[in-house]
Structures are given as structure tokens and as C-alpha cells.
Amino acid sequence: MVATTVHLLRHGEVHNPEGLLYGRLPGYRLSERGLRMAELVAATLAGEQGAPRRDVVVVTSSPLQRAQETAAPLAAAFGVPVGTDDRLIEADNHFQGMTFGVGDGSLRHPGHWPYLRNPFRPSWGEPYAEQVDRMLAAVDAARVAARGHEAVLVSHQLPIWVTRLALENRRLWHDPRRRQCALASLTTLRFEDDVLVGVGYGEPAASLLPGASPVAGA
């Protein structure tokens, strides 16, 4: 059997002083802390932090700026180009560009309330099942391209998390506060030929998480 590993890397912290749900909006770059997170992930996978050097031959990113910036030091560390795959993009969300809360946030406006009618789909954005389908297609493409080696796909919290839930045969609707998908974390999928044999999780930038912005893209 041929062993192949596909890592799903969440981007680093984003410069977002207004605390908006930025979703797919353009122009949201990494913060200084986020850039350090990306560099630390690259150094860790390249074997510069005491762990063995990983066999990364493919680095592919969501088209959004924060993901591309997270991918850049990783691609440089392994001497490969950054590919772009639109299937890795953030989930679409009705509330992008807004703050999300009851006080001064978007939830104080009754016009937004109908978008909350079905949390299981969810009604406020791209259905969970559709996110899983596109993410798994990107994973399959990366697995084929990196056959016998390792690939890193840089994406976003929600698409990564629902993909993991699906692969672990768990329900897709969930409490967002309980997602195990921190900034610059790695959700690792291990394959033998085309069969998934293991799912792992790690936080190579854990030292930079205290004090990081908790606001997610969607």
C-alpha cells in the first residue's frame, strides 16, 4: 500500500480591528501575529523545531489573501509553488461584513432573524454538506498529486471542521464554540492508497494562540 498524508491547515490570525465576520470579503490579510504563526508552522513541518522534516511536495491554498499568506512560507520552506484551489475557500455567509451579536451586532435587526431559522443546514450560509463535498474533492485531488508523500491544503475553520466531522461520521451541525480547529492548526488525514486510515490534529503555533483574535471568517 502507498501511504499519503494530506494536512488541512487553517490560516493564521487575521488583521481585523473592527471584529467583523469577514467571510469571503477581499482585503483581509494576516496580522503580524498571523504572519509569525505561518512562519512557525512552516518551520515545524520543515524540521526546524525539533520534529522530523515532513515530506511535503504539494502546497495548495484557498484563493483568499489570508490563506495565500499562510501558505507562502510553507511553500518556500519546501521549494514548491503555491497552488490555488477555489474549493478550499471560506464558507459563504449572509452575515459577512457585519458584527454578529445581540447588542450592537447584526442580530439586533429583525430583518436578519429569518436567516437563523434552520441551524442544521445552516440557513445563514453555504450548507454544511456542500462544504464537505467541495473540500473532499480538493483533498482527493491533493492525495493523487502527492501520492506517496504529503500535501498541505490551506483553508478556513468551518470548512475544515465540517470535513473532519464528516470523515469521522459525526453530525455536521454543531456548537461553533466546540470546534477543534485553532488558528494555524493542522488537521491531518492519513491514507493508505485511497482509503482513509487515520485523522490527527495538532497546533504547531500553540505558543502564539494566547491573546489571538477569536473572530472567525464565518
TrEMBL record:
Protein name listed in UniProt: Histidine phosphatase family protein
A Pfam cross-reference name: His_Phos_1
Gene3D superfamilies tied to this protein: Phosphoglycerate mutase-like
Domain of life: Bacteria
Annotated InterPro entries: His_Pase_superF_clade-1, His_PPase_superfam, PGM_Phosphatase
Coiled coil residues, start to end: none
